[in-house]
Each structure stands twice: as C-alpha cells, then as structure tokens.
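ok trying this again, last paste got cut off
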Amino acid sequence: MATNKPILSVIVEKRLKNKLKKYAKERKVSLSKIASYFIQKGIECEEKGLLENISLSILNLFPELIWIKDNSLKYKYANKRFLEFFGIDSITDILDKPNIDFLDEEMAKTCIYGDMRAINTKEPYTSIEIFDKNGDKYYLEVTKVPIKDEKGDIIGILGIARDTTQEIYIKEKLKETQDKLNSLLKESSSACNIDCVTQLPNRAGFLEIISKRLPEIRKLNLNGYIVLIDIYNFKYFNKIYGIEMGNLYLRKAAKELQYFFKRKNIKYILGKTGEDEFSVLIEGNINIKTVVKQMKNLLQHVYLKDSTGNTIRIPSISLIGCKLSPNGDIDAENLLIQLEVELSKRKNTVHKEPLIVSQGMITKGLENERLLYNAIQNKNIVPYLQGIYSLKNKHLLGYEVFFRVKHNKKIIEAKDFIFTAYATGLILFIDKAILREINQIKHKISTRLFVNLSYLTVYQCETSSKDFVDLLIDLRENTSFEIPESDFLENLKVIKDVANRYNLDMVFDNFGEKHCPIKLMIDLYNDKIVSMLKFDKHLIKSIADDKKNESLVKTIVELSKEFGIKTVAMGVEDKKLYEKVKALDIDYCQGYFLEVPRDLKEIIAA
C-alpha cells in the first residue's frame, strides 16, 4: 500500500472557491457540506490507504472544523479552524494521535462513539456533540463520513463540524422571552379569572368560586357533585380543523351546557379548567348518573360545519364525577386534580360511560400523592430491572429500568402511583432520581439498559435543562430510552427534536395501546429516532384468546421485519403465551415467565 502520496491535492485559488460557493448556493446547502462531498470523492479516487503528507489548505478558508482520521482513529489532517477551536498550536501536535491525547476523557468518548457509529454503519453520521472549553459549553453539529477505497473497505473518517452554540443560545433566549410573555399573559388572564374563549371562569376563577362554596355545602349537609368533562384528543381536533373551529366548538359547548342546566333548573357553577376541560359544581337532589349521561350526549351532538358545508365530527367526551362528602376536608384544587388523575387512569374506557367515584377514592389518591412526595424526599424511589430476552436462544439483550416505591419496608409497584406522578408533575423528580442512580452504577452493568422516560422530562431537555441533558448524554452510549406510544402521538415533534439534538436512541413503548399507525413507527425508524418497538402488554395478553389481535400483531411483526425493526413482547407471564409470541416470530420478550423484576442492587451484587 502506497505511503508517499497525498490523499488529495487542491490548488488554492479564488476562482475555485467562487465555483464552490456557486455550486453550494444552487443546491441550497452549506459551503462546508459541498466541500466535504468533493473531499470524499477525491479521496475515493486516490490510491489505497490514508497517507501522511496531506495538502488540503483550501479547507482553511472555511469557518467549519474539518479533519481526517485513519481507520485506527488517529489524526491525519485538521484545518486551521479545528486547531483554533481546540487551542492546538500546530497540526504536528496531533498528527498520528487519537482524541484521548489532547481531549479530556468524556470529550474523547463522545468523539470515538461518533467515529465508530460511522465505521460500523458505513454511512455518514450526524450528531450534536457538546464540548467544555474554558468553562463554557459549546455545541457542535458534527458529520462523520466513512472514507472507502475502491473495494468499499473503510480506510478512514472525514469529519466536519459546525459551531451551533450561538444558534442554541439564541433559541434558549427566545424560549425564555416567550415563556415570560406566556407568563404575563397567564397572569393577565388569571387577574380577571375569565377564559377568553368561552367567557367562563378559568381554572383559577372556578377554584376561587367553589372554594368559597364547598364549606357551605358541607356545613348545610347539601347534596353536591363535582363533574369533570374532558374533550378526548382535542389537540388533534384543532390540528385537523384549525384552532378557530376548536374555539367555536368550545363556545358552543359552554352555551349548550349553560342552557341545559337552566332548562333542568339545576343549580351549578361552570368553569373552563383546562385547554380541553370543563368542570362543574352541581347542587341539588338529582340523579347524577342520568345528568352526566345527558351532558355527554349533549356535547357530542353540538352542531358544527366546515367551510365546505360538511358536518364536522365532534371529539369523544369523557366525564367523571364525585359526590361531595359532608365530612370531607379535601380542598377544591386537590379535588379537581384527583378527578383528573382518576380520569387519566380510565381514559381508554371512561369515555364510553360516565363514571361517578366516591370521595373515599379521591382521598386515597391524595394519600398516594403524599406517599410519593415523601418517597422522593427520603430517596425511597427504587430502580427495578427486568431482563429482555431473545426468543430464539433466550440470550439476554438488556434490562428495562423502571421505578418502585419503598414504604414501611414494603416495595410498591409503579402502577399504583404512575397517574398521580404525571398529574402532579412528580414524575420529573422520579425520572431524575432513576437517571442519577443508573449513572452511578452504569459501569457495573455490561448489558444495555432500557430506561423509561416521561414526556415531561423530554420537554425539560427541549428547553436545554442542564441537569436532565447531562444525565441523558452521560447514559446514551449504553442506554435506550423508552417513550410510550401515547407520548409519541401527542408530543412527536419535541421527542424527535430532542432525540436528534442529543443523539438519543429511543424505543417505541406500549405499541398498540392506542392503535398507532405502523407508518409512523417505520418513519421514526428510518429517521433513526427509534431502534425497536415494544408491544403493549395488554395487546400481547389478548392474543391468547383473540384471533383478530393475534393477526394484528402478526402483521405488524412481518412489516417490522421487512423494514429491519426489532420487536419486543411485554407481559409474557406463562409458557402458553411465551410459545405464542415465539410462534409469531417476535424478536424479544420480557415478563414474569422468564424473570421477575429485581432490585438494581441485587443485579449488581450477582
């Protein structure tokens, strides 16, 4: 293999640079991207191997960082901007040296990870890499292109990086300004306590009014009910028909409810307590079950037409109510929050029939909230792990990580708290506790980890919350982050942005819970957002007796294999179901049949 020729020779002249600029402008890409393309093509035309004497001085004209490494990841060239960025005096200081010789350990690991990804996939690889320089954090958009000889063998890596720090800083400042403006708008709205769309009391106004009324109802031992009305998937109604049509529906719904209560001679206080939520305090001797059914029927028959005169399909309505106890001492805000928690638990079924719950159930919800809060304060959020195994040979792929709560020497499963955790925002503190603990022991576990992540945590990363971003970046090399199907459907853009920005591997969790279109899953896989899908455990359990669901799962598995998507069956708890999912040719499974969840400390000790 030759060792005395340059990898590429370029004559530096103004005419050539102008041609490159014109070419880049015509194709609407950056000058550096065009340069990297021609460099790669030039390299492929050279003789085999990366060579020591490199003359690429034209690259010193570009503002991007550009470099070349051989297939042992040692530097063979770096342009002037690269040397300036890393404070290197001369190219000779890094020639034939790896990253670890002049970068700190964490920065070097980040660089090596990207290099190996490009080498292993034999495809260009782009990611956001974060570097600390003189105490300041810099964000680089890095593209690494594998250099191939005529046989297609990888002989090196071409790297090009654009400093996006200022762009991210501006985005953060804009977000900060927007948040301040939103805060001012909310304060202004709360000051008058009126919802601007429906002219009903907003959440603050509704709570203020009923907070004064509840003690009187209890004192006089009157019959009273709080009813929560949720407009199912209202966000998508707005996307399909537009916000103006959504606002029109809200106004008509509010008027229809007001007219309904007046016509029935029912004493009420009605409020718009959320973006897609009404709440009402009802007083009097009424048949509450009949009233809520009539309310639901009324709201689902609000008459609307689009601009073409076609009737618009009204969203489904979910209702949940609670009879007020004369001996109860729950304040108005907690009462409303716990109703929202109970409604969330039954979101897939409550919209069929309205539900009336006891105040005892609401009290239980408050007890769970206090227990969860104390567990967070006392560091009693415990990571539990369950193995994910190959259905072909029972080889351990990795461990799913989720939380449980330690209370009075007992371990309580997350399912008892998960809705409360989301409704109260405590899930953020739970996610942080789990991520921190996993970070501390990640070197003690050799297999891959699959960590559950809430959409609230993803939103924190979108706003560049340093605590969460640093935790995820530290874990990303050996960790996939599981996002539920419902969160993908409702927060797709944010999840994609965060996954791309910080190069996170996502897993599509609970697939089939809401009948997500398979095309979305395929698009996310092709965009390198997700690496696999995990079937919802309820869907998997149903295939034992439901032929339609079995056919559904089989079809999705076949499509997934065609596109290269790996599949996991959750909730496999007996041999019969194990054989069933194995016959469907699903790649992996997890469940009590193979392994019960175990405390993280127990797995480390083993």
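PB: full thing came through this time. The chain has a mean pLDDT of 82.
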